[in-house]
Specification:
Elements (H helix, E strand, L loop, with lengths): L1 H17 L15 E2 L1 H11 L2 E6 L5 H11 L2 H10 E6 L8 E3 L2 E3 L1 H7 L7 E5 L5 E6 L4 H12 L9 H6 L7
Parallel strand pairs: 1-3, 2-3
Antiparallel strand pairs: 2-6, 4-5, 6-7
Helix pairs in contact: 4-6
């Protein structure tokens, strides 16, 4: 009986150890680090990084798809966290003020100001906190990663279109 109990205990311990999370692993791998508007803009200025603003709502199916399929991708979330400050805003709930070039807006008014008419909307800002471009709607992860790299590499300042960049990324490096 004692041998049986010891054997079962040993099997249980061995099984438990084999299924445990390795020490030092990142439980948040694949998670984008999101900030509020003011905190994110202040941090971007301090760190000299560009900003990604993601406008969403709770009822938006495509917003949920962006979360589930794009932002949860480890390669995309790592790239976003390393190269940008990421701000997530629900304009229907947020009352934070967005201050841009001397003007202040509610998130909903700001969306109208930039011509955004639906959700999701992703807006990109350069390192000097100047708006670059708006990406309306759902974007699959391959295209989204290309857009991230295009903006990070400052290809827009070299007058290279996104389509040109996607066919030959070396054009931006010249």
């Amino acid at each position: 009986m004692l041998k049986k109990t010891l054997l079962l205990t040993f099997i249980f311990i061995a099984f438990s150890c084999s299924n445990s999370t390795p020490s030092g692993s990142n439980k948040n791998a694949g998670a984008v680090k999101w900030y509020g508007v003011q905190e994110g803009m202040d941090l971007a200025k301090k760190e000299g990084k560009g900003v990604i603003m993601f406008f969403y709502t709770d009822w938006c199916i495509y917003c949920k798809m962006m979360d589930a399929e794009v932002f949860s991708d480890v390669m995309i979330s790592s790239f976003m966290n390393e190269n940008f400050i990421n701000i997530k805003i629900n304009p229907e709930k947020s009352r934070e003020t967005i201050s841009v070039m001397g003007q202040s807006f509610t998130p909903m008014n700001f969306m109208g100001e930039i011509g955004a008419t639906g959700f999701p909307t992703t807006m990109f800002w350069d390192k000097n906190q100047k708006p670059l471009t708006v990406l309306p709607g759902y974007t699959d992860k391959d295209r989204f990663l290309s857009v991230l790299k295009y903006i990070k590499d400052d290809c827009f300042t070299k007058k290279i279109s996104l389509e040109e960049y996607m066919t030959d990324t070396s054009k931006c490096l010249k």
